[in-house]
Amino acid sequence: MLNPTRFLALALTPFVALSAPAPGAAQDAGPPGMVFIKGGRYKIGIEKDEALDLIEKHNANMVVSETPQYEARLDDFYFMPTELTNEQFAKYVTATDSRPPQSWGQKAIDDATIAYATDMGKQREEARANGEDFTIPPFDRNDWWQDNWMEAEWAIPKGQGAQPVVYIDFEQAEGYARWAGVRLISEEEFQAVARGNSERPYTWGDEFDPKAVNCTEARRGGPAPVGTFPKGAVWVDEKGKVVDEQDDDTLGVYDLCGNVWEWTRTPMRSYDKFKPLEVKNKATREKETITYEFEPNNRSSVGGGFNVANIGVRLTTRRNTARYQSTAGLGMRCSASTVPGLDIADSVLRADLPPSRRPEGAFYVADKITAIDRWTSTAGTADIDGYRVIESYDYLAFIPNEKLEVSSTLLLKDRSQELPHELGAFSTTMPLLEPALPAGTYTLSWRAANEFNVPEEPVVEDEEGESSEVRGQDGDEALEEVMIEPEYPFDPLVDTLIFRDLDGEIVGWIPVAAPGEERLAPGKIALKEIGPEEAVAAGTKAGTELTFQVYVPYTRSNKGFLFEIPVLVKGGVIDETWRR
To answer: How far apart are the C-alpha atoms of 60 and 54, rounded to whole Å?
Structure first.
């Protein structure tokens, strides 16, 4: 554990502030291979008249879910130029031992199908010999793969590394996004990139073009390698704006129409102010009410696919998709925030620390995160400018509590004796040297030194009522009586930052000074390299110390407590490639 005396010894060690990198530095870049999209106001969905026209011409009642059109305000973000490919998803599967898509295990499934048919055939013959009826239950390829993939052999089908990954359910899609430090796209992001400031139904314009998209009219019968239909691409300039033409300063975003459906993180809810539509039935000339049964527990998938007609590959199409669905025509695409660590904060709070698992008094605020992160990647086989295959994502992040229900440092110290104050959550993919903890997510609380737990020399009265200090053996016994047993595994006479695991057990602690009261400001990270000599002098280990300087608000909205959270990691790992 960290030695309290080492802070003075390390005070003069040079540090580098990681809060304000130089413009254009490597750490400012987003996830590898993603295109920067400028935020702004974008139109989402379609107007009532357009929906009525589509219903009348194509009998496409589902378009009612795309109404009414509204305007969304989006912050800057990053967006994948292609649907996620097999080779990109494979990195996640092998790194996490996660379930591969069913399409990667076709030989194993075919062999199991044959074995099943052989076994069922024998059972049927035996039943017939005994004069019994026997119906062979159908073999469910998907169920077999779900149950047996860990023992089965699998591989990306030959030549399909740059094809969209399919047969992934929502949980698998979210799993990849968290591992890669990104997020699933939203409906609004998808439409903002695909349509820009226009209201066009297709990426190339208003009229359907069968040569620009992989849908039923293309007659391919399956997904095409990403970028196969460049005519259907949109182009983004160096400022992040969607533009009409390709030139040397633009980057392409492909397959927004067709190829495979793409999971989004958007629940299948109605748009604000949704109303059913009244239409006239051509045959009966009677008015009909067209409505839609929204299912918010499901997710919207977008873009259409190779197995739907032109009406289904419009940019505003919404497909009501149950989260367990896993089909040959359903894939994914990712986006990312420009704020370091924000996407992983959302994942951590959703997966690791849902409300039911949070300590009492903890209300975490993801968008106030203080983090440092880094990706590694390689070139892939897709012939797309900037296309990259993410190999790993590392981060260290602190997500603060919403506020502390105290109004001064004095109250903070006093009330921490009853119950340590919940400061926030700390999550990392890197093992910590001090406190010695594996990668993971922890909750952090702070407890002030128990100043009342310092016993004076015990005093006893003699037979005549005279008081005297007790020393020697009898004094030791008296001292033992007045000492309060510590309730924590750390020194109660030191201000302490406490790390708890997701089960609420104390697994680490750091001695830290009491916080200062400051006007609220963004968090910062300070970096110190601790060499072997400094480590010996300070009673710690050699490595890189990151001190998170974070603000936790209190009852005065413009002020908060400034805490310093020092953690030690292996030296030489944090360099200029990290984003902060």
So the answer is: 6
Could you give the CA distance from residue 21 to residue 6 in angstroms, rounded to a whole number?
Answer: 28
Rounded to an integer, what distance in angstroms lies between the CA atom of residue 565 and that of residue 546? 8
Residue in 526, 529, 569 with CA at minimum distance from that of residue 19: 526
CATH 3.90.1580.10 residue ranges in the chain?
32-90+161-337
Which of 374, 372, 490 is CA-nearest to residue 426? 372
pLDDT (tens digit per residue) in 56-71: 989 899 999 999 999 9
**Hey, CA dihedral for 375, 377, 382, 387, is it positive or negative?**
positive
Q: How far apart are the first and last CA of the chain?
A: 27
On whether the CB atoms of residues 314 and 292 are closer than 8 A, the answer is: no
> In 10 A of CB 288, how many CB atoms?
13
Kind of pairing, strands 440-447 and 543-553? unpaired
CB 496 within 8 A of CB 523: no
CA angle 302, 306, 310 (to 5 degrees): 70
Which H or E run contains 122? helix 106-129
Summarised one tens digit per residue, pLDDT across range 290-299 is 999 999 999 9
- 3-class secondary-structure state, position 332: strand
CA distance 382 to 394: 25
- Dihedral sign of CA atoms 539, 544, 549, 550 in order: negative
Provide the 8-state DSSP code for 351: I
CATH number attached to the domain at 32-90+161-337: 3.90.1580.10
91 DSSP assignment: H
pTM as predicted: 0.88
The encoded tokens of residue 184 equal: 């699933």
- CA gap 455, 474 in Å, rounded: 16
Cα angle: 158, vertex 159, 161; to 5 degrees: 100
